[in-house]
Amino acid sequence: MKKIALVMIIALLGTLSSEAQIQKVDQEVYGMDCAPCAYGLERGLNKMDGLQNVRVSLNDGKAYLELSKNNSLSLSQIQEEVKKNGFSAKKAEVVVEGTLINKNNGYKLVTGTETYQILAIISDDLNSKLKSGKIKIKGIVQDVEDGELTDEWKIEVTEIL
Amino acid sequence: MAISNLHLRIVLIIILCSSTISILNAQGHGPLYGLQTPTLARGGVDLNVASMSLSTENETSYMLRYLFSYGITEDFQINLTTPTTIERLNNAPRTRGNSNMPANGDIEASLWYRFFSNAFGVGKRFEGTAVLGVSAPTDDVRGQVNVGNSIHGAISTGYASRTWYAWLGGGYQYYFEKDNEQLGDLPYASAVVGYRPNIFMGDYPKPDWRIFLETMAEFPGDNKYNGQQNFSDSRSNKVLMGPSFLGLYGAWGISFGALFPVVQDLTPSAVKENYRVSINLSYWL
Question: What is the pLDDT of residues B173-197, one digit of tens each?
Fold first, then answer.
């Protein structure tokens, strides 16, 4: 009986994580100074499966991405595309949905492809809304050196949606 | 009715420009003449067509030049450039042509390696690129001297932002001996400053224009002739300066400009230059 319950829990978590995904990314891009640079990046991003809308701004130094439902894109794939175009991917504001896990007095958001470690939240309001299970958050993903991209990120939560 | 030489030149320049425009291609998004640093994206392709003209005290050359570039990685780029020479100079000064292009009838293959790049702000980049190229001539004789193959190396460093640009570089071209004759070598340096006025600060995908002030310093060695007694190994010293303009729109780029001699301290066998003009069109695939 216990085994059946365990299998059901695992199956449920699996379902949750397969639906989990990044939904929106405002990716900061350094070093992009010209129209063909923006054109190249926009075209490269548009070739990726799972993107619904892409806009690149030279003046903001950002790529604004809206991702389609059930996409399987990861933030590291997006940042790798930025690097491939010769630029440096810095901080990113993301809207991401996943499963929040409380472990060792800290929270981690697990999506189908990546893990986001939640940085300490000062706001009591935000803290009170953090509960294990399925959750959608908005936050700032901290910059990682371009050569050290992994599937683990640190995120500063700004809003729980 | 006789057509004057000047009219013929004007017609030829118009034909060159319109043929270039009809092909719709050019060169990088840096300066027109000076050494630059940007490299293509990984897997990126850049097609270019340039028309260039060089006028000396006695004659004027006209040439179309095509440049194909491919980004192996975001830091490695290979290039191949070939010429269509329309009017050759009998006595050609030893010089490079546009940035990353020979000025004469050489076919040149080159490798660019961006050995450092520091993107330190929105639109801001500081980087350095090394160039190594080999070339083979399409003509047997240039300025009454047998033309051999040549090698070319250069290094440049540059700063780019949304408003200001600057590049500084130096290079060297060495021609190998052919049938006991040898074209003089060419050490050279370039310095470029660029500026984008506020009125062209519109965000992508609006068109984007920049103005450059370009300076080239060239120190071409004398040629060696067959049977020549007492080769002196002397060098000319030349400094040229001029404006260039670069317009970018989406995947397209156009640049045009001219260089005029400021200093011409020439050896007796070297020829005096009047001007260089060029127009480039680029398309990034």
Answer: 999 999 999 999 999 999 999 999 9
Minimal Cβ distance to A44: which of B41, B162, B207: B41
Return the domain boundaries, chain A.
2-160
Q: Give the rounded percent of residues in chain A with a pLDDT score beyond 90.
A: 56
Distance between CA A21 and CA A99 in Å, rounded? Answer: 10
pTM here? 0.83
**Which fold is adopted by the domain A2-160?**
Alpha-Beta Plaits (3.30.70)
Please indicate whether, in this complex, the C-beta atoms of B208 and A86 are within 8 angstroms of each other: no
Task: Record the tokens describing residue B264, joined without a space.
Answer: 């011409």
The rounded distance, in Å, linking the Cα atoms of B75 and B58 is 43
A35–chain B Cβ distance below 8 A for any pair: yes
Q: SS in 3 state form for chain B?
A: CCCCHHHHHHHHHHHHHHHHHHHCCCCCCCCCCCCCCCCCCCCCEEEEEEEEEEEECCCEEEEEEEEEEEECCCCEEEEEEEEEEEECCCCCCCCECCCCCECCCEEEEEEEEEEEEEEEECCEEEEEEEEEEEEEECCCEECCEECCCEEEEEEEEEEECCCEEEEEEEEEEEECCECCEECCCEEEEEEEEEECCHHHCCCCCCCEEEEEEEEEEECCECCECCCCCCCCCCECEEEEEEEEEEEEECCEEEEEEEEEEEEEECCCCCCCEEEEEEEEEEEEC
The CATH number for B10's domain is: 2.40.160.40
CA gyration radius for chain B?
19
What is the rounded radius of gyration, in angstroms, for the C-alpha atoms of chain A? 17
Which class for B100: exposed (0-12), middle (13-18), buried (19 or more C-beta within 10 A)?
A: buried
Decide if A57 and B121 are in contact by the 8 Å CB cutoff: no
Cα–Cα distances in angstroms (integers) from residue B136 to residues B80, B113, B256, in the given order: 12, 22, 27
CA distance A61 to chain B (A): 5
Bridge partners (DSSP) listed for residue B47: B68, B283
CB-based contact, A46 to chain B, within 8 Å: no
Domain count, chain B: 1
Distance from C-alpha of B283 to C-alpha of B285, rounded to nearest angstrom: 6
Q: Which domain holds residue B59?
A: 5-284
Specify the DSSP class assigned to residue A15.
H
| pLDDT tens, residue by residue, B56-86 | 999 999 999 999 999 999 999 999 999 999 9
